[in-house]
Amino acid sequence: MALTRYGELRNQLMRQNFPNVFAPAVLRDADSNYVPIPISERLVQCIWYDQRLKLDALQTTDGRPMRIIFQGWWNLEAGPDFRHATVQIGDDAERTGDIELHLRAEDWNHHGHEHDAHFNDVILHVVLWEAGSQHVPRTRAGQIIPQIVIQHQLDTALEQLYDEIDLDSYPHNAGNHHGQCAQVLRALPTGSLAAMLDAAGDERFAAKVRRFTRWIHRGGPEQAFYEGWMEALGYKGNKLAFRTLARRVPLAELNDQRSQLASILFGVANFLPTGVPQSRDSAAARYVKRLWNTWWKLRPDFEARILSPETWRFGGVRPANHPHRRLGAAVALLKKDPHFMEKVVGAIQSGGDPAKLFSEIRDDYWNHHFTLGSKTQSRASELIGENRAREIVANIVLPFVAAYAENDGDRKLHETAKARYAGLPAAPSNSIIRLASCQLFEQPSSARRYIKTTRQQQGLMQIFQDFCLNDKSACRQCQFPDLVRHWTAPQPES
Ligand code: SF4
């Protein structure tokens, strides 16, 4: 059947804008007619996820036999397509790492992966088309990455796979991707499952308390708390960058130079231009110029502490979460109150709402801009939304207060922090919770039936971290089903 006008236009536009991720292919249909069908990278991802390959006879482009022990976790964040896969190639030992998939071998370079440190852990490049597969992919460090071309190693003709695979349902509703523990968990009484998730959630909380205890011993409570909430503002890709910045510019130093703290933080973050700033938007130009006017005088004192540009991750970040804007939020928090930590601890002691201390910050510039130098947005948007503020309370404030109380010998405050944590309602889902729900429950919707609190969500993430991320056997050698059986087994009488 001829392509519709919509299909023609779509192919034309996609070819122009995404020449390397979208390639309509002409394939032979069941009646031996040639039909154009759009083959996208997403289809290749689904094929890999479902392992629709001749698994017993796989060969890399250099002719070595290959075995896939685990295809990896589908990555919904920026970075390689699959994480934590395990493969064995030729006589080499099994390797665990990331997998990147493309339509063509040269897409590795077209997408700039050979310069991107986030692709350093790729252990296999999977490409669909044979043509051009002599191209050799390399990591940023120059390491050659093994490559497999799957065009002639599929378990079914590509046309048929295209018909069978429902692209919209991947990865969460594609079925048959749950782990071996799903059956064991299904047999567990609801009360036991809830108790196990609570216990795993408590273990995660305790690990965070221990981490804050170490930080308090190293730099004191104010610095520990500052590093904690700075790290949280780095949200996913920039956590380490924000924490590094907080260590390079300690809170005590910022408090001594409060009128200059924005210039110092943006300067040490390496976000300010080296020359006189230019911008067409006058509000942005004034803001950047103001920071820069102070920074160029301070710069020699901070030179050795300036972060390298590679520290930051800008790709795959929504404009509202751009690191510039997140740092703007940090500046607003720091400016708001030099005794911020005491206020937060006081809110826990008095039964107040610590989330408001994060969500109620305002800034003339950052409420209307996404980056330094960007256009002014007519509608103001919050610097730290309510959901993010509640996440910070669960992950940073409560474990910090528990550690702080423990350090101070304040048992009552410690118990209050733990009780507040146990009472938090479930937070909006995230990609780890969705992935873990898919793996551990036969239906992701069942997970929603069982998981009612933040503590249980954290428990689920802890199980995923403890077992799924350490498993290199596609569940076969995982100990979690055993743990579940022991959890249910009656304890011997003492
Ligand atoms: S690795 Fe373990 S915990 Fe994860 S899905 Fe498989 S059996 Fe379950």
Per-chain topology:
Blueprint: H1 5-17, E1 22-28, E2 34-40, H2 41-50, E3 66-70, E4 73-74, E5 82-89, E6 95-102, H3 107-110, E7 122-127, E8 147-149, H4 158-164, H5 181-186, H6 190-219, H7 221-233, H8 239-248, H9 251-256, H10 261-268, H11 282-302, H12 323-336, H13 340-349, H14 354-359, H15 386-408, H16 411-422, H17 431-440, H18 444-450, H19 454-466, H20 480-488
Parallel strand pairs: 6-7, 7-8
Antiparallel strand pairs: 1-2, 3-5, 4-5, 5-6
Helix pairs in contact: 6-7, 6-15, 6-19, 7-8, 7-15, 10-11, 10-12, 15-16, 17-18, 17-19
Bound molecules: iron/sulfur cluster (SF4).
Describe what you observe in this structure.
This protein is of the alpha/beta class and 494 residues long. The chain folds into three domains: 156 residues, no CATH class; 107 residues, no CATH class; 175 residues, no CATH class. 47% of the residues lie in helices and 9% in strands. It contains 20 helices and eight strands. Strands 3, 4, 5, 6, 7 and 8 form a six-stranded mixed sheet that branches. Strand 1 and strand 2 form a beta hairpin. Helix 6 packs across helix 7 and helix 17 crosses helix 19. The N and C termini lie far apart (75 Å). 35% of the residues are buried. The model has no long low-confidence stretch (mean pLDDT 89). Bound molecules: iron/sulfur cluster. Iron/sulfur cluster binds next to helix 17 and helix 20.
